[in-house]
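Colleagues,

For the teaching module next term, I've prepared a clean inverse folding example: a structure given as tokens, and then the sequence designed for it. I'd like students to try predicting residues themselves before seeing the answer, so please don't circulate the second half yet.
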């Protein structure tokens, strides 16, 4: 990290002893980012700091990739999903966002998860509407007896 970047250190300290630090110093800008700090704090209570950090980094990295793959697969198919996900997986920006100790990687994973869920809901609702349209069309214009 470049000199002067103290935020990753603050987040690391918060993840080591979140509740006592908040009790001692109160709520501030960094401690209110609970969607990033609480998974880190939970991982640090379950295991030592280095494995916990690796689990969190790889967890958010893979969550974002799998969510992007699933959302693109729902919309456009498997091959575009593979290509798009591989571009993101090897992107230096995405790699730095996940490994820098800052909240960017976690928030990218959350945004991609919401994208995946929105794609799934859109696909489900469009299939339901397509089924209703087909049912209404068959009710208005009944087919003659099927040929054998």
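(Answer key — instructors only)
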């Amino acid at each position: 990290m470049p000199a002067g970047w103290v935020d990753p250190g603050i987040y690391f300290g918060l993840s080591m002893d979140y509740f006592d630090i908040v009790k001692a110093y109160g709520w501030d800008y960094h401690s209110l980012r609970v969607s990033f700090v609480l998974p880190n704090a939970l991982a640090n209570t379950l295991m030592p700091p280095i494995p916990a950090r690796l689990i969190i980094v790889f967890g958010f990295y893979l969550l974002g990739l799998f969510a992007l793959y699933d959302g693109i697969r729902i919309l456009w198919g498997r091959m575009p999903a593979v290509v798009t996900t591989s571009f993101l997986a090897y992107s230096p920006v995405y790699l730095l966002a996940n490994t820098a100790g800052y909240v960017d990687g976690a928030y990218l994973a959350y945004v991609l998860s919401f994208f995946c869920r929105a794609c799934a809901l859109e696909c489900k609702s469009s299939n339901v509407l397509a089924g209703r349209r087909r049912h209404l069309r068959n009710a208005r214009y009944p087919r003659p007896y099927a040929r054998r």
